[in-house]
Design a protein that fits this description.
Elements lengths: L16 H34 L6 H17 L2 H6 L3 H11 L1 E6 L7 E6 L1 E3 L6 H11 L5 E4 L5 H10 L8 E4 L21 H6 L5 H7 L2 E4 L4 H10 L5 E4 L8 H9 L6 E3 L6 H11 L9 E5 L4 H9 L7 E6 L26 E6 L21 E6 L6 H15 L8 E6 L10 H6 L6 E3 L9 H4 L1 H9 L6 H25 L2 H10 L1 H11 L1
Helix pairs in contact: 1-2, 1-4, 10-11, 11-12, 17-18
Length: 521
């Protein structure tokens, strides 16, 4: 009697579209994380080289391992894209990426990857207009009317908009959008105007703006902002980036009131305390959207700065404050921050404080279970590294310990430095000062990240050989964690009989095998 044929191999092709899409999203997230990890390690190596400093051997090996990971894994989304037509269609939106300049205070411009984005200044080419737009237009979700867009390219993209029915996210710059749409009375011959946009909706532009869910704009005048918001009534997220906003508080709150679905609002960090105070005062008589996330400036006048987010206190879940100026007047003589006594954000779970002056991390002193009874995460980020930052962060640590000494909702504290993220390991002593039950502390530039102890593993080994005191308890804890991961990896490989998993595990254990042979020899 012949043996029954083996069961057919499981195929990914039969999965529902929703499951396939979720797989692609998770693969894209992993690809981005690995690329970011590699970027941080390269940044550290380049920084050490610029300091005319030898790259620590442990860091050099870590960078080599990361490059090996990137070379072997590549892009998992690209692999899915090449499987067949079904997977290709679903993965296509994640394959189109542009580089958007991203500046940090005091640092050189870097580039941030933005997926599924049409950068208008780059759409003038024949390949894009005759091939990419007609074939893949439905895959794009974002459009960037960037500052480098010439008038001719702006007009040509309008004709292509019907190819992009799923755009929901836009960035509208003054130079790349608003300046090309003057008022009706100032129009030149054959020039589009705001009047055309509102009343005739030429070539789908009105429909595009009406379908937007997320909008970023540097419009700095009441007139420009009002025109845009008048058409984008379905926004869930609004990010305002004007360097010198000239709108009044009363006019601004009227604009916000026209967005009933808005959940996420970012106010320019240069918005004055007077404007914020006027906005809050005018908001009393208006029906406002129920924001869940707010980002805005924190000035010396804490009462005025907190007035606007306090207007949304009943619904806010995430709160971010940006401190660009030194606000010496915001503290009492004993260094305590002058937070208004009636400040209360009952539902905020995540709080971030970003400052260009490390001394201002003292603003954290106003964060307490009484003002933030639901808080679970606090992130404090300084833009630059200074000699005093350890003591400044130490003061922040003292505030946290004083305010959260009893077990409550807070679970995670993250301290970071924007410009030089790898200098954060200088905050190790600060980590040790935050010893609160149930609260983890991180100084990593991203999460998850390689623990700092592994960067210094080679130096620690040499130090132990030379008779210096090394923190063996910390090393033991980290080694145990990694060994547990390897054990679990081996168990899964054995259960699934996965040759590929065994091969990857063997690569990871190469160094361990060399150590075994050396010790037994």
């Amino acid at each position: 009697m012949s043996a029954s044929p083996p069961p057919p191999r499981a195929s990914l092709d039969g999965l529902p579209i929703e499951i396939k899409t979720r797989i692609i999203e998770l693969c894209d997230r992993q690809d981005k994380w690995l690329a970011e990890l590699h970027r941080y390690l390269k940044t550290y190596a380049e920084e050490r080289e610029s300091w005319n400093d030898d790259l620590p051997q442990g860091t050099s090996k870590m960078l080599a391992h990361c490059e090996d990971l990137a070379a072997n894994f590549g892009s998992t989304v690209a692999v899915l894209f090449q499987l067949n037509r079904s997977w290709s269609s679903l993965a296509a939106p994640f394959r189109f990426k542009v580089r958007r300049p991203h500046s940090t205070a005091g640092s050189a411009r870097t580039e941030r990857t933005v997926a599924q984005t049409i950068k208008v200044s780059r759409t003038a080419g024949t390949l894009f207009q005759l091939y990419i737009a007609p074939k893949y237009g439905r895959c794009f979700r974002q459009i960037d009317f960037d500052e480098d867009t010439p008038n001719e390219t702006f007009r040509s993209i309008l004709a292509l908009l019907p190819y992009f029915p799923h755009l929901v996210d836009a960035r509208l710059s003054n130079a790349g959008f608003s300046d090309f749409l003057p008022g009706h009375s100032t129009r030149d011959d054959d020039q589009l105007t705001w009047y055309d946009l509102v009343n005739q909706a030429p070539m789908g532009l009105g429909r595009l703006l009406n379908s937007l869910v997320t909008l970023e704009t540097d419009a700095n005048s009441e007139n420009s902002l009002s025109r845009i918001i008048k058409i984008t009534r379905n926004l869930r997220s609004l990010r305002l980036t004007a360097r010198r906003p000239s709108w009044s508080g009363e006019h601004f709150v009227q604009i916000i009131a026209k967005l009933p679905l808005l959940l996420d609002l970012e106010v320019p960090p240069t918005t004055s305390a007077d404007i914020l105070k006027d906005v809050a005062a005018a908001a009393v008589s208006l029906r406002l959207p129920r924001l869940t996330s707010y980002t805005g400036p924190l000035h010396s006048d804490l009462a005025s700065s907190l007035a606007l987010p306090s207007a949304f206190a009943s619904s806010l879940r995430r709160l971010t404050f940006k401190i660009n100026d030194e606000f010496e007047d915001a503290f009492e003589d004993d260094g305590e921050p002058l937070w208004p006594s009636d400040t209360l954000f009952p539902h905020v779970r995540s709080l971030t404080i970003k400052t260009t002056h490390d001394e201002n991390v003292r603003a954290l002193g106003g964060v307490s279970p009484q003002r933030f009874p639901s808080i679970t995460s606090v992130h404090v980020q300084a833009a630059i590294f200074a000699d005093t930052i350890e003591s400044s962060y130490g003061l922040a640590a003292d505030y946290l310990c004083a305010n959260f000494s009893r077990t409550g909702t807070l679970r995670h504290v993250r301290l970071s430095i924007e410009d030089e993220p790898f200098r954060a390991h200088a905050l190790d002593s600060v980590d040790e000062r935050i010893r609160l039950p149930g609260i983890s502390v991180s100084t990593n530039p991203m999460e998850p990240f390689v623990h700092w102890a592994f960067f210094s593993a080679t130096a620690d080994r040499q130090g132990a050989q030379d008779g210096y005191c090394v923190d063996g308890d910390r090393a033991a804890e980290l080694v145990d964690r990694t060994m547990d991961f390897l054990t679990d990896w081996h168990r899964r490989a054995a259960e699934t009989d996965d040759d590929g998993a065994y091969a990857r595990l063997a690569v990871v254990l190469q160094r361990g095998e060399l150590e075994r042979v050396a010790m037994l020899g």
